[in-house]
């Protein structure tokens, strides 16, 4: 496991895809998802040139933040309980799991600066997945306009757990269409220019379909299953 080599491979893949489809590879931001790995492994990602770190639990975020705090932009990518907002809010620049008004109100109340939020959408409709339904999205984003510390920078989704690339692609295409709908509303607090989609197994498809933030754990920093 060499994080530097992994990152180079991923960046090369990004460059090749972008060249092929006419996108600018500078628009693709790699978030190293460090939930399965040690602080040392997270540090190795930063040394390799990664700028964004993502954690899905309060404990993991706090442990790594204590050591690596100002070296990275921090992303909270996991489902977030309202009562935990106060424990993470001063550390994160981005939250990828905003999916309900009650959570947004708590973020708005606890934050002392605008937080860049992705509204998580359950595009695939799987019951196990978090996120607001595509039908609720418009309404939720409009409601968020009264909350000055909530900035809707984009939408986030997780593809269904399947090997079927067509199913995965359809999910990402749908998120792109939802993004265009939100952009058309021209809401001041919801520019919605970003798309957080794509993980180790499907980031290449996600980039083809418009991802700007990809969240990569296993194929970048590995899985030690004993991370903090
Ligand atoms: C764990 C996780 C990832 C990274 O998954 P890998 O398959 O290891 O790349 C991305 N996004 C979210 C929300 C996650 O929980």
From TrEMBL:
Record's keyword annotation contains DNA-binding: no
Presence of keyword Lipid metabolism: no
Segments forming domain Alanine racemase N-terminal: 7-223
Keyword tags: Pyridoxal phosphate
Xref: PROSITE patterns: UPF0001 (PS01211)
Cofactors named for this entry: pyridoxal 5'-phosphate
Family (UniProt): Belongs to the pyridoxal phosphate-binding protein YggS/PROSC family.
Record's protein name: Pyridoxal phosphate homeostasis protein
